[in-house]
Specification:
The complex is a heterodimer of chains A (293) and B (433). Chain A is an all-alpha fold. In chain A, 72% of the residues lie in helices and 2% in strands. Chain A is built from twelve helices and two strands, in the order αββααααααααααα. Chain B has 20 helices and eleven strands. In chain B, strands 1, 2, 3, 4, 5 and 11 form a six-stranded mixed beta sheet that branches. Chain B has a five-stranded mixed beta sheet with strand order 8-7-9-6-10. Classes of the chains: A mainly alpha (293), B alpha/beta (433).
Chain lengths: 293, 433
């Protein structure tokens, strides 16, 4: 039997949700509405004139094979970033969860990278992999591997994925560790007494009980990969070589901020908005079913 | 008694602050940090100290893109500065913004002598009828940087002629044979190997006089001369003779570290190279293809200019004019040219630098000036005026990378660059109708 608290009348509840609604309206609905409105025009950068083009901006974008290719690049990039950052974080969390001594220090050390801004992280990784002076590329050279992310598309993608995922590992680690520690020890011990080994226990008990955390992180990480990674891409590859690392949000940035093409940039944001809404709906509809709360 | 003193003190401070506010304030937004930022601040301080009618307030607003965006955002909010620094590729955007900008020749008034500015420097920023729309501030042009030690090590006479790409090709062969890892690298590939290449060989980069004659322009960068050059560069890249380091000036680190023998880069790289290079280096004119042109035309500039924004008082514009007049004076220009390696904007400043013996003490610093001024600019070598050009450069970068990696041949890549760039030019034409 669910317990419900009900208010009498409409005014008090309205008043109580008003701050939330106001904030959402000012910081979300208004800019989103502006983006949709602007996407229907070709404005000049100074706001001196605007031309109504209807869906012209969308036509222009979708007829560009390079823009369409950017969808695939974004999908590959986002999946890789999510898988790498969540996989490594889960592995570290499982290890940390088994630690008896010194887990506090270990945890603190692992959280550090989260404090590094994406653009700075980008520069750090760029220095390590710089084709001429980078430490890592020098060692790779000693091993006979010629690292050149400036021209090799696969290496460039690998580098931006690692740099984007790196800072994210700490964040995911924190949530996974908290999730792991919330699993009652008695359940695991009971399974151990029944003769279940670590891997069996992980597969049949820990993983299902961890699924709410995993699901939350999946949603959050995909949104991160979609929207917050342009700093890394900007500092490391600027979208290159060719268009190997031009993800959708980087194109929004470069067309709008560098190219002053606000109409196209707005249309691209609208497209991104639609994609992320669809993704979130799909996640909640199909993946959440398999989540055990 | 104590309170009274402090009241008097406060009043004194306030009134002196008001006294300095009585001078008309001129806002100047620029994109320089570090040493260049200090030099700009020094210019401004000198101007402010030289008279008491106007106070120029300089502020750094980020890199070129950020400064332009700050200016645009401020204009939309009605808070625009008087003077805004804009990178050369933003020229078409600024020109098209009628109602947001006030052409410099109008600000300067009737007594403005435009002929004292060097033609190939101001040409980038003049209207079709020859009037200056903005004031060139920092301008440079690409040259060939040579690591003489590297040549000697490879058994090449460091004085070997490298005026033409044919000769450079021979040198690259020997360097590669001798086991040099990085025979040649470049910075700003589109600017040097396509934009300047076209001007230098007097072939169009775009129709309509490179966009000077109208926004209905189309890219012509896929002409036979450009294709031949990029094709040869692509071959050199495949052979390990040309090492591609990145879209901006990443190659500079390799050259300054002494790894690369030859480096095509802006003449403004001088300060950095002089400070860091632990080898004998030299500046040579940018090479040309003898097969394409019997002698080179002039190269074009890169850098930024100062635009005056609309919407201020007449008295303030008088201050802007005074400041710009000050910046153009021979003393200030000569100092700027010598401190930074940027080109002087007036012939007088160049003469003065020569008289001071600066070129004799710093050999090669006059190469850029001579390369720019050797010939009167033609319609192909006056500069470029293309909308969305920052983005078009991005497209060119992408297509060139496809050539360097061997994914595309030069013709295919440049055809594709032209086609993609033209789509953006049509959009710009539509946006500014």
């Amino acid at each position: 039997m669910e317990k419900r608290v009900t208010f009498k009348g409409i005014w008090l509840p309205l008043l109580l949700v008003l701050p939330q609604i106001l904030i959402t309206a000012v910081f979300f609905f208004y800019p989103a509405g502006q983006a949709i409105w602007q996407s229907l025009f070709i404005p000049d950068p100074f706001g001196l004139s605007m031309q109504w083009v209807g869906l012209g901006n969308f036509e222009f974008l979708l007829s560009d094979p390079f823009y369409r290719a950017s969808f695939l690049t974004t999908a590959i990039f986002s999946i890789l970033v999510t898988v790498v950052s969540m996989g490594v974080a889960l592995y570290l969390a499982v290890l940390a969860d088994r630690l008896i001594k010194g887990s506090g220090t270990y945890r603190t050390l692992l959280i550090w990278p989260y404090a590094v801004a994406p653009a700075v992280a980008g520069v750090l990784w760029l220095f390590m992999f710089n084709t001429r002076v980078g430490v890592v590329s020098w060692y790779l050279g000693q091993l006979g591997y010629d690292w050149n992310h400036v021209l090799n598309e696969g290496e460039a993608m690998g580098l931006v994925v690692v740099a984007s995922a790196w800072g994210r590992i700490s964040y995911n680690f924190l949530f996974f560790l908290a999730g792991l520690q919330a699993i009652p020890k008695s359940v695991i011990e009971a399974a151990a007494i029944d003769g279940a080994r670590f891997w069996t226990r992980f597969r049949t008990i820990v993983w299902p009980l961890l699924s709410p955390t995993t699901f939350f992180l999946l949603v959050v990480n995909i949104i991160y990969a979609f929207f917050e990674t342009f700093g890394v891409i900007h500092t490391i590859t600027s979208g290159g070589p060719q268009q190997a690392t031009t993800i959708l949000v980087y194109k929004v940035y470069s067309d709008g901020f560098v190219g002053q093409d606000l109409g196209s940039s707005a249309a691209q944001s609208v497209i991104l908005l639609v994609i992320v809404s669809i993704l979130t709906v799909v996640q909640f509809k199909y993946i959440e079913r398999r989540v055990h709360y | 008694m104590k309170t009274l003193t402090s009241v008097i003190a406060t009043t004194a401070v306030l009134s002196s602050a008001q006294a300095s506010f009585a001078a008309t304030e001129i806002e100047f937004w620029h994109a320089f940090t570090g040493r260049l930022g200090e030099l700009v601040a020094e210019q401004v301080d000198t101007f402010n100290a030289s008279q008491d009618e106007y106070t120029v307030v300089q502020s750094h607003k980020g890199n070129y893109s950020e400064t332009l965006n700050a200016g645009i955002a401020a204009f939309r909010a009605g808070e625009q500065p008087h003077i805004l620094m804009v990178i050369e590729v933003g020229t078409a955007t600024m020109m098209a913004a009628e109602g947001a900008i006030k052409p410099v020749y109008e600000v300067m008034g009737d007594g403005f002598d435009q002929s004292k500015y060097i033609g190939s420097v101001k040409g980038y920023y003049t209207s079709p009828d020859g009037n200056m729309l903005s004031l060139p501030f920092n301008s440079s042009t690409p040259v060939l940087w040579v690591n003489r030690d590297k040549l000697s090590e490879a058994g090449i006479d460091p004085d070997t002629p490298m005026a033409t790409w044919e000769q450079v090709g021979g040198v690259l062969d020997v360097l590669k044979e001798a086991g040099v890892d990085c025979p040649m690298t470049t910075a700003w590939q589109s600017w040097i190997h396509l934009e300047n290449f076209s001007a230098y060989h007097n072939v169009p980069f775009a129709t309509q006089d490179n966009g000077f004659a109208g926004t209905d322009t189309e890219l012509a960068l896929n002409g036979p001369a450009q294709v031949a050059h990029i094709s040869q560069m692509g071959q050199w890249a495949q052979d390990g003779k040309f090492i591609y380091a990145g879209r901006r000036n990443e190659g500079g680190a390799n050259f300054r570290a002494g790894e690369c023998a030859l480096f095509t880069e802006s003449s403004a790289g001088y300060a950095g190279i002089k400070a860091e290079a632990e080898f004998d280096f030299e500046v040579r004119p940018l090479p040309y293809w003898e097969a394409v042109a019997s002698e080179p035309q002039n190269t074009i500039i890169g850098g930024a200019s100062l635009w005056v924004m609309e919407g201020h008082e007449d008295a303030e514009y008088a201050g802007v004019a005074a400041f710009m007049d000050f910046l153009s004076s021979a003393d200030i220009q000569a100092k700027w040219h010598q401190d930074t390696g940027y080109l002087p904007i007036t012939a007088e400043a160049g003469e003065k630098t020569k008289m001071m013996g600066f070129y004799d003490e710093n050999p090669g610093t006059d190469i850029a000036v001579m390369q720019m001024t050797a010939k009167e600019p033609t319609a192909n070598s006056k500069g470029l005026r293309l909308g969305s050009f920052d983005q078009i450069r991005g497209i060119i970068d992408e297509e060139l990378e496809a050539v360097w990696s061997g994914d595309k041949d030069a013709q295919t890549a440049l055809d594709s660059a032209a086609e993609r760039g033209n789509a953006l030019l049509r959009r710009f034409e539509q946006a500014t109708q």
